[in-house]
Amino acid sequence: MAVAMTKTSQTFRPDNEDQLRDAVAWAVSEETSVEVLGHGSKRAIGNPFEAANRIDLSGLAGVTLYEPEELVLTARAGTALDEIEALLAENGQELQFEPMDYRPLLSGTDCGRGTIGAVLATNLSGPRRLKAGAARDHVLGIRAVTGRGEIIKSGGRVVKNVTGYDLSRGLSGSWGTLAIFSEVTFKVLPRAETETTLVVSGLNDADAAHVMAMAMGSSAEVASAAHLPESVRGRFIDGSLPAGPATVLRLEGVAQSVDYRAGNLTRMFEAHSPVSTLDADMSRALWREIRDVKPFCDGTERAVWRVSVAPGAGHQLVAGLRLRAGVDAYYDWQGGLLWLRMEADPEVDLVRKGIRALGGGHATLVRASDAMRREIPVFEPADPALAALSRRLKEQFDPQFIFNPGRLAADL
Amino acid sequence: MTTPKMPEPVGDVLKRRAEIVADLRDIVPGEGVVDTTNEMRAFETDGLTAYRQLPLVVVLPQTVREVSKVLKYCHGNGIRVVPRGSGTSLSGGALPLEDAVLLVMSRFNRVLDIDYGNRVAVVQPGVTNLGITNAVAERGFYYAPDPSSQIACSIGGNVAENAGGVHCLKYGLTTNNVLGIEMVLIDGEVIRLGGRHLDSPGYDILGLMTGSEGLLGVVTEVTVRILQKPETARAMLVGFPSSEAAGQCVADIIGAGIIPGGIEMMDRLAIRAAEDFVHAGYPLDVEALLIVELDGPEAEVDHLIGEVERIAGNNGATMSRVSQSEEERQTFWAGRKAAFPAVGRISPDYYCMDGTIPRRKLPQVLSGMRELSEKHGLTVANVFHAGDGNLHPLILYDANKPGELERAEEFGNDILRLCVEVGGVLTGEHGVGVEKRDLMPAMFNKQDLDQQIRVKCAFDSQHLLNPGKMFPELHRCAEMGRMHISRGQMPFPDIPRF
Question: Which ipTM did the prediction report?
Answer without folding.
Answer: 0.96
